[in-house]
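Follow-up to my earlier ticket, as requested here are the two runs.
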Amino acid sequence: MAAVAQEIRCSHCGAPVEFKPGELVATCKYCGFTTVIETGQAFTFEHSLLLNSYSEEQVENLVRDWMRSGFMKPGDLAKKSKITEKNLVYLPFWLVSADATTKYKGIFERISPPIVKEGQIQKEYNWLVLAREASGFPTREYNVPLTGKIPYDFRKIEGFAKLLNSEMTRDEALEIAKQQIEALHRFLLQQDIDKIVEANTTINLKQMVYLHAPVWFIKYEYKNNAYQMIVDGATGMVLKGDIPSSKF
């Protein structure tokens, strides 16, 4: 059952701002003013936008090119497929720029006798957190083209596009990013040690940006079966694509 949309008045222009239960930050589609729903106060963090670079026709051409490439796809996929939906959605993200250092001690057991090893992993991240509670979006495969981001400008968003609001606060997104970065570092440790004795991760936050990015959600049919694709609207990269079995 679909959630019923609610409305508040934009404190900047007075227009109705629509939001759904669970959304915490709402952006006015008429003037671009962003509001914290719970307090009704202005959103005080940086709000950026990535521009969409592709029309519906150009996106379809990208999809057809993807269908023609790769040895795992049926040879007639591009010719026999019917694209049934092309939806442009501006997804909300929290972009966490941070330095992360993990100091560790562990046991290397791939030789005999085992030895104790100590060291550290130190990396810089622009870590992306999708600001929606539930989604199958492939965030880790999405390499955000940060050089293209501009201050949020509602006039740059296509009239037919859908804009989604954030379902998490800045602090919630930061905590998710910290947990994910720490998990990644523990995974990377396995390249150097076999058993972790201790590992401590320190994350130095440099900046957090609230970002809307254009993503095309594509549906297509091939031999009476339905498939989906996700295409980055800024770069044209296919982030995820269902491939029919070549047995067809």
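Run two:
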Amino acid sequence: MRAELLQQPVLHADETPVAMLDPGARKTHRAYLWTYCSTKLQSTRLVVFDFAEGRAGRHAAQFLGHPGEDGWRGTLVCDDYSGYKALFADGVTEAGCLAHARRKFHELWANHKSVVGEQALALFGELYKVEREVADMDAERRRSIRQEKARPIAKALHEWLVVQRQKVPPGSATAKAIDYSLGRWQALTRYIDDDALPADNNWAENQIRPVAIGRANLLFAGSLRAGKRAAAVMSLIHSARMNGHDPYAYLRDVLERLPTQPARRIDELLPHRWAAAQASS
């Protein structure tokens, strides 16, 4: 599944903390479950979870392969976490998350009834209105509509942000929200000219949300190996669900067929190909 995923030109990435047991210390410490998945705009639907001891950028580099060493060189949709920066320096293209930028202003409005926050939300809302319009369009039409309608909105938003930034003191919550968008503007608006790119990272966040919601029930991973095994099982279950399969039916069929399935045809059992393989059997 990882090999198939790394053939995709665009990937989402996200990470969430999980507890891992440290038997020697008789307590848990923070580990991370990293999520890598294809986009909604691609025909291949896969998500692969990678359990790691921490949040250091080297974990992302190990999964994707170092770009400078024949690793993956596509476009990565992610938030502004510093762990991904080394990948961009080595040749991976950065695509920002419009939802993260919008969220900064939503917090301003929700917590402080900020007028700047409210006005920014209206402009972000116009960008998302375009995305709803192009959601079911083919790639060429999606790019054309984005360029025609989203580009002038983005230009107006950028000009407005520059003006507002001059009116607020450095270090204020409003300044930080504006600086987040201005500092990543090229990455945030890259999707407008690239029909293969989504506007945000919400698709990856949706894949990892069940983990965050179930964290209280999961308690902790017993070891690094146990965490990696759990990540592998979760990758199969969530990918099966992404492809419209009942996870139980998928896993049962795969486990029954594995003993006699030729190794050269193992790809027939991957979640995104399973239905075709099932139909031909």
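The only thing I checked on run two: The mean pLDDT is 90. Let me know what else you need.
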